[in-house]
Amino acid sequence: MEHTTYNMTFALVAFAEGLEVYVAHPEDDDVRMWSEDEIEDCEGHLFVIKWRGRTMTRKVSILWGEDLLEDGDVAETYCFATESELKAFMQAVHVMDGYFGCPYQIVEEGYIHRDEDC
């Protein structure tokens, strides 16, 4: 399983947790990062976080775009192997909301928005 992100903090936390961190290259193979310095040098690039054989026990479900919801929109569920990964992800979500004004709601897994819920 893998996750992609531009968030360097998320990549650093994933690396510290023992996950494999790569930098994506659209025309070449992804390049594996072997140190925090390498990850920091790649700030602004797309990171690919890969984990193999780890149990994904922590989850959060998010309904994106509070003001733009349409009937039948389904919440996205994100799974993580560690609490640190989940916390880093939620920190990135919070920062994104602050910078871009992208509202969201944390909901139950499998949640489907219905217009009558408003």
Structure description:
The chain is of the alpha+beta class and 118 residues long. Helices cover 28% and strands 26% of the residues. It folds into two domains: 52 residues, 2-Layer Sandwich (Dna Ligase, domain 1); 64 residues, no CATH class. The strands form two sheets. It has a four-stranded antiparallel beta sheet. A three-stranded antiparallel beta sheet has the order 6-5-7, with helices on one face. A hairpin with a 7-residue loop joins β2 and β3. α1 runs antiparallel to α3. The radius of gyration is 16 Å and the shape is globular. The N and C termini lie far apart (35 Å). 14% of the residues are buried. The mean pLDDT is 84.
Q: What does this entry show, briefly?
A:
The chain has 118 residues and is an alpha+beta fold. The chain has helices at 8-16, 36-41, 83-100, and strands at 2-5, 20-23, 31-33, 47-50, 58-64, 76-80, 104-107. It has a four-stranded antiparallel β-sheet with strand order 1-4-2-3.
Cross-sheet strand order for the largest sheet: 1-4-2-3
Overall number of domains: 2
Rounded Rg = 16 Å
Number of helices: 3
Oligomer: single chain
DSSP, total strands: 7
Task: Enumerate the spans where pLDDT stays under 50 for 5 or more consecutive residues.
Answer: none
Percent strand equals 25-35%
> What is the mean pLDDT?
84
Give short descriptive properties of this protein.
alpha+beta; 118 residues; four-stranded antiparallel sheet; three-stranded antiparallel sheet; globular; single chain
